[in-house]
Inverse folding.
């Protein structure tokens, strides 16, 4: 949704600003975020899933108080940290055979809608659901020790080693929330987190069902 939000902001004459990979979200930006995520991106993903053999339904983090947020940082405006997850609506949909597609919005403790980083929201939901795996599909092969060297792809890494990398030049600002959320998810009880290239056909199957896998797997012990 990020590029779509930026384009929609541009159409309204709003200039996107980011701090450590997170979008600064004032009142006008929040209006664009909510309309784009819940009104455009979410229905498009639901349509694509439904057209490929599953039965999906769209959910916003505002629905049934799925996500409740508190302000993350005054500089970021209406960007929230997840304060509480109420996964009942997701569990109910899954029990009935639906694939929930969740827009990362939240009701703030102050009653205002908040923008959540999608990676952070996914990790919090994975923990609340007791998920065994958390998988991120992105537009890079995985995590590199040296972003300029495609041969430096990290296949497996422990949360301790990953924490050490977070302060280095090898991690771009945009990747930081994703990696931090992997650590948070595993510390919250999720067994494994995976960062995969979503452009690769059958990426999820290749990672889970082949010995060598693809992308980067993060675990407590890295194995």
């Amino acid at each position: 949704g990020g590029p779509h939000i930026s384009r929609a902001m541009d159409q309204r004459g709003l200039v996107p600003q980011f701090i450590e990979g997170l979008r600064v979200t004032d009142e006008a930006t929040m209006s664009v975020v909510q309309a784009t995520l819940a009104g455009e991106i979410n229905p498009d993903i639901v349509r694509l899933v439904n057209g490929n053999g599953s039965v999906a339904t769209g959910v916003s983090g505002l629905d049934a108080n799925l996500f409740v947020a508190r302000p993350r940082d005054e500089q970021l405006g209406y960007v929230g940290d997840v304060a509480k997850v109420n996964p009942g609506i997701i569990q109910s949909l899954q029990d009935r055979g639906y694939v929930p597609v969740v827009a990362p919005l939240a009701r703030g403790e102050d009653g205002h809608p908040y923008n959540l980083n999608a990676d952070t929201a996914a990790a919090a939901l994975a923990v609340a659901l007791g998920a065994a795996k958390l998988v991120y599909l992105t537009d890079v092969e995985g995590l590199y020790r040296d972003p300029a060297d495609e041969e430096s792809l990290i296949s497996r890494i422990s949360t301790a080693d990953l924490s050490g990398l977070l302060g280095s030049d090898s991690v771009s600002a945009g990747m930081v929330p994703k990696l931090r959320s992997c650590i948070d998810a595993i510390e919250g009880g999720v067994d494994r987190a995976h960062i995969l290239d979503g452009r690769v056909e059958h990426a999820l199957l290749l990672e889970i069902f082949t010995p060598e896998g693809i992308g980067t797997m993060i675990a407590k012990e890295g194995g």
Remarks:
- The mean pLDDT is 91.
- The chain is about 35% helix and 25% strand.
